[in-house]
Each structure stands twice: as structure tokens, then as C-alpha cells.
Amino acid sequence: MRWQGREESSNIEDRRGQGGGRGGKTPGIIGIIVLLVGAYYGVDLSGIVGTPGLSGAPQQQTAQLDNQLEADLRKISGVTLKSTENAWKAYFAKHGSQYKPTTMVLYRGGTRTACGTGQSAMGPFYCPADQKVYIDLSFYDDMRKKLGAQGDAAFAYVIAHEVGHHVQNLLGILPKVNQAQQAVGQTQANAHSVKLELQADCFAGIWANYAQQENLLETDDLEEAIAAAESVGDDRLQHRHQGHVVPDSFTHGSSADRMAWFQRGFKGGDINQCNTFGS
Ligand SMILES: [Zn+2]
Asked: How far does residue 73's CA lie from ligand 1's centre (Å)?
């Protein structure tokens, strides 16, 4: 990505200096406080990133990033967020309304959110109750080492996906689906969740379409982003974690579907192409 020298978003709340616990001295804390209270929308790495089992398997610590890498990731996040703001501002304006940007919270280890305590072991997530995206930059390391997703555009895809949940919130889709989920059983609720997640992937594709016009993306970036979408598919994660795949328990969608919806958003550049609820 051509992120060097570009303007960053001002909608960033940097809590990295506030501590929040890397967890080294408090055994088990990272694993125990994994779940947030209330609805939130994350990458869901609970299966593979440092969640101890009931047997009390040793916790993993949040990775320490090299200083230069962390500074670069901070810049990439700011530039990507700005690019999503440009994209959605233009899109909303074109359709006669105004985009209200999300705030991105950078934190280390754990932090308070309106959805409960956020932990970096969960991966990046969006909390609709405070309309903020939460991200621990060390997720970049997890992506690379545990998911095999490489590169700055892979990281940018995840940010654009979380911003996609914010757009769903602004459009009233999140609360509506959330309500529908209360009224049905687990399998149905999971199916709704998959549709939300695939739509957020499609919205991330719309951003990529715009970012390409903005000349932010380089030749291999699209492939990087698509590979990242593939790496967080439920079938891929389940296979990695438990050795078998249970489609009824999918909450985010298969690798093939996640890639397909991202590409659909990218090609169409239009939210009408992102009706994952239509079929
Ligand atoms: Zn999501």
C-alpha cells in the first residue's frame, strides 16, 4: 500500500499508554475475560489465539511488536481509516445522506468498551453501543504467524471490515438483525451472523474499490486482502483449531464465501451488490 506520507484520520483514540495489562503477571486473566457482554462484531480468534481450555492450558501473551513495525502499523491504521472515511463519506453523500465516522481505539492487552471488556486475544472488533472499532496492533503478528495472512493490505482489510460493521450500524442493519437473532434458535442466529459478516466483507470490498481509485493500493494489495478474507473463514479456523468443520456453528462464513463477497463489493463498488440477506 502507498501509505507513506498520506493523511491519517483524526478519529483515533490512542489508549496504548494506559497499560491495560499484557497479562504476564496475572495468570489466566487473558483467557478468562475473553467474552464481551452484549453484541459486538469481531474477527473471532477465540479458537486460535491464546484461549486456555478448561484444563487450564497455559495462556499466551500478547506479542511485543518491534518499535518501527508498531509505528508503521499505527500509520497504516490511520491512513486506512481515513481512506474508509473518504470512501463512505462520498458514498453517503451520493445517496443524499451524511456519513458519521467511527472512532478507532488503539489499545494494548485489554480495554473497557460499552460492550464490556475488550481483550486483544479476541482480535479487532466493533462495538455498536459506543460506535467504536477496537484494535490491538499486535493483531498484525497474529495474522502473520497464526493465520498466515501477510502484508499491510491484509491488515487494512480487517480495519475496513470492522468499519463495514459501523456502516451496517448507521444503516440500521445491525440492530434489526440483532433483534431478529433474539427470537430464533442458535443455528438460525448463527446463520444471521454469517450474513452480517459476509456483508461487512462486501463493504470492505467497496472500500478497496475506492482505495484503488485513490491510488492507495498497489499491484499485489488486492490479492493480499482476498487472502486475508480467506484466512479468517470459519472452515479454515475450525479445521486449524479442532481438526474438523461444523457448518451449523459458523458465525462468519466459509473462506470461499468471504473471498467471494469481498470481491463482489470490490467489483460493484455499490452496497446493492452486498445484499447477503437476499437469498
Ligand atoms: Zn465482523
From this structure: 20
